[in-house]
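step=encode ok
step=design start
structure_in=
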């Protein structure tokens, strides 16, 4: 494998959907996924926003009912906003996340008491969310950015 193929592979998600609401928990369960690490900005809600859209909130609630555990990993520097959203979603978080370093993905998996091979991560950024998840051995899911004003996907 040449260097470009290695880079491409490191940022290639296992699954691609339009938004979190399109992620089917039955499919994740078939892949033995028990826990999900969520990115915040442009994945769960628009950048800088405090209000989690109902579609994201409903999806998380549905997941919890299906036995899925959730955890937030965000590179945001706004701790107050992060803790507010974590409280809204009813899940724990690690701050700062230092994505794409895999260390905090693995810490989150340990906190949930789930093996990395049974973990998924969801995010809108290839070079942070997906790259980190691939390094940590997670099942990686790419979503389209919520905020379409920011069209650059890196
Ligand atoms: Mg994001």
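sequence_out=
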């Amino acid at each position: 494998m040449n260097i470009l193929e290695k880079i491409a592979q490191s940022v290639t998600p296992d699954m691609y959907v339009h938004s979190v609401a399109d992620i089917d928990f039955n499919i994740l369960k078939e892949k033995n996924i028990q826990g999900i690490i969520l990115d915040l900005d442009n994945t769960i809600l628009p950048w800088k926003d405090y209000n989690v859209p109902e579609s994201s909130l409903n999806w998380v609630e549905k997941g919890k009912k299906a036995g899925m555990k959730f955890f937030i990993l965000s590179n945001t520097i706004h701790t107050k906003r992060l803790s507010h959203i974590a409280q809204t979603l009813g899940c724990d978080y690690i701050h700062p996340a230092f994505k794409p370093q895999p260390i905090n993905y693995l810490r989150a998996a340990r906190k949930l008491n789930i093996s990395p091979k049974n973990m998924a991560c969801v995010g809108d950024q290839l070079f942070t969310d997906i790259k980190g998840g691939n390094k940590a051995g997670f099942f990686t899911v790419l979503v389209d950015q919520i905020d379409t004003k920011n069209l650059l996907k890196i």
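step=design ok
step=annotate ok -> The radius of gyration is 14 Å.
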